[in-house]
Each structure stands twice: as structure tokens, then as C-alpha cells.
Predict the structure of Radical SAM domain protein.
Amino acid sequence: MYRRIVIVDGYNDEPAGLGVPPYIDVYPRLVAGAVWLANKDVDIIYWTIDEVRNNIGLFIDQARKSDLVVFIAGPEVPGKYIGGKPLSYKDAEKLSFLLKDTFKILVGPAARYGFGVGGGSVAVERKILYRIFDELVYGDPEIYFYNLVKYGVEKAEPWKLREDYELANKALIHGAKIIKQHPNHGWNLIVEIETFRGCPRWIVGGCSFCIEPRYGRPLMRKPEDIVKEVEQLYRFGARHFRIGRQPDILAYMGKGVGEREYPEPNVEALKKLFHGIRNVASGLRVLHIDNVNPGTIIHNPEKSIKALKTIVKYHTPGDVAALGIESFDEKVVRMNNLKVYPDEALVVIRIINEIGKHRGWNGLPHLLPGINLLYGLPGETKNTFRTNYEYLKKIYREGLLIRRINIRKVSVLENTPLWMHRKTVEQLLRKHRRLYNIYRVKIMNEIDRGMLQRIAPINSIIRYLYTEKHMGEYTIARQPASYPIIVKIPGKLPLKKIVDIRVRKIAAKSIIATIT
Ligand code: SF4
């Protein structure tokens, strides 16, 4: 019999899904919803790991009086976020020691893949995590927690994955009210919404580094189920939504999944989804997307253009289509079964610019491409760094806009094709460490800065930012958005307030501004 459960959100950051504040991802909502579905009287107390650090005494007291404590964890690069500091393995060890008599369960990517440190390695493997947690739920949390509360621990299977969205849909609706306990609720909270899981490219094996194809055939949520969830979240005060939990929003309900590597975008389904969300959440302030597979656009240009225009019609400006281009080096593309060749990537960037570059009410272009680049992939040579840089220069010279260039070292996960080549990856990362750092800075100074100047020119006005924290002599403010620009305002302003700003100066990754 469970009377009280404590959830500690240690945050997740996955390729398709973000739970670092101001985001709340599906995990706490699924856990709470499944528990309440099984027994509506269970008292669930939600803490973020930052709240735990700030008030450890009260937390320990509450946690010791509860029947179990659920930890959510799984950042790829811990410690580099404005909105919060993810749970580290050290935090987990310490809390586990303080709660040695309480049943502790780990949920999220850390339970599935171990605690990561990013850049090609897994720091703490799962078998070690069993020393500090009583259970690791590496299947879907709604199945485990529903069975745990309803039928007891012997019926709860931590490995079980969903075969459809029936239980998850119910859990997400029942769990929506947990957002009211989030410290960002009422100001800049962004709710991450899941539309499907699995990659349509699983039929060709997918990209070498990616775990998504291991789910097999993609599992889709119906638009009406997603809309119902948004309606419920809206009722509990959510005003900012990101439709970000899927590897490619254009493949949502796509035609030919299972037959084609790049399904044809289903414009009707996207319209039903985005229009439906607008209908039930008429006062929302942000509706953004995240990943877009550039291959979908290249192989279905007409339908993709219609799909992107549909998104732009219903979303809010300042949105980003994050393109997993990964590399502009043809050899790396070929050897890792990536999505598009360099010239195709250029075509995609032009298309998105054409559709999304006009400015909206908040002062930013509607929809811009973001680029992800990965280093350490087999086939990489010194020339890869030059080639990537040259392509980015070319994009810049053409006058195109890119909202952000995300440069990372690849993480090698078990059960991916890359696992067989992990030694090669390690060698490449070691060999090219210097080049990696040099080109990162070069791209930041020569391209990022120029792009930001185009997107937010000096003296332009950007609206609807929240003041989030004080840093030195500045107040940091950001829009609640898919990839918000970091704005530094001189002086210490009151926090959690909405401000409009005027751009005064551009740095590579941030701007300095004054209040209008
Ligand atoms: S296209 Fe590649 S990176 Fe994207 S989900 Fe599929 S396998 Fe993963």
C-alpha cells in the first residue's frame, strides 16, 4: 500500500526530449499519472534536484516519511544549463546514503544507459547503479508504476516497454497536474510533448550512433490524444509547449512508415495536431518544435514544404527546426549511414529559411534551422573539421540564417552500431581534441556571432523574455523557447518578470540588451 511518493526530478536531456528547467519532460507526468491511475489517493510530492539542494533538511524529512522515492535522471552533459544543475552520480550517492532505509527507484535515460558524462563514454554503468538504487526502471515508467501501485512489486516489470500509447495517454492526462508543483510553474515553464517514438529509418539501421532505431517500428500517438493532454496541461496553467519528443516532427503520422526510409509528411495529421492544440489552448504563448530530419525534406520536398508551412501557421515565432546534419564530410555521412549529403543539407537550409525567416510578434524570425554537428564518428579525418567549417562559411556567405550550431562529441551507447567501433571513436576523439577546440572557437567567433547579428540586429526589439537569474553584474533573461537566445541585461532586475528588450551588443552566444 502506497500512501506517499516523492519524485526527485534530476532532469533528462536526450536527443528527443528535454527536462532541464524551464522544461518539464514526460517522466514526472508519466510516473505521477500512472500512480494516480492506480490509486488516486496517493500523495505525490515533486521536488527538482535544485530544490533538494536548497532545502535538504525538509527534503530528507519528507522522503523518509514516504513509501518510496523516484529519481529521474539522464543528462548527456551535466552542469551546463542556465535553468538548473542536473543530478550527478555524486548527488545520487549522497542522497541514497541519507535515505538508506527508503525504497529508491531510478527512472529515465540514466536507468537505461547509465550516468553519462558526454563525449564518448558512460561514466557509471547500470550494474554499479544497483548499489545505490533498489530498482532501475529501464522500460516505460507508466507500466512499471501502474503495476507497482495496483498489484505490488512482484507484478511490476522494470524492463517492460509499451506496445501502444493506451496507458501512457491516460497517465499523461492524469499526471498533468504535477506541473503545478514545478518551481517554474506560473512563469516560464515549458512542457515537452511527445508525439511518437522510434525512427522510420530503423528499416535501414539508422545512424550509427543513435539508439532510436532500436525501438523498431515507430509508435505514434493520435493527434486527438495529444490535444487532450495539452488541454489538461493548459487547464493546470501550462502556457508554453514544445512538441519536441520525437526524432522528426515531419514524420509524425507519415505515410509509408515501415516501407520507406523517409516517410511522406502527413500534412493533414500535422494540421489536426497544431490546429487542435490552438483550439484547446487559445491563450498559449509559445508553441514550438524541435527535431526535423533533413532527409525527410530532401526525399519529399513538396509535402515537406506544405508541412513546414502548416507548422509556421499555427506555432509561435522564434521557433527552431533542429537538423541532425551531423557532418558535411561525405565520407563520414556514408560510413555512419547519416541522413543527407552536404549539398542536400544546403538545400534544406534554404527551404526552411524561405518558409520561416519572416519576423513575428516577438521580434524573431518564425522558424529557422539549427544545425547539429557530431565529432568522433568513424571516417573523420583532420579534413572533416575544415570541410564542416567551409560549409558553414558557405551558408553564412549566402546570407542564410541559422539559429544555432550545436557542436558535440559523440556519445557511444550500447546497442548502437557505433558500440562495435568504440575504440576507434575514443582514438579519434583523443587525436582530434585540439582541432575540436580550435574549430569550436573559430565557428563561434566567425559564424555564430554573425548569425546572431542577423537574427537580432543592434537596436531591434525582442519581446516576451523572463528574467531568470543574476550573474555577476547582469540579469539573464530568455524567452521560453526551443533554443532561446541568452540575453544579458546590465544591473540586477527583479526575477521571474516578463520584459521586452532592445539589443545593444552582440557576443557569440549571447546578446547584451536594455529594457525597452
Ligand atoms: S534519423 Fe538517425 S539520428 Fe535521427 S532518429 Fe533516426 S537514426 Fe536517430
Observations:
- The mean pLDDT is 95.
- Residues 329 and 434 are 19 Å apart (CA to CA).
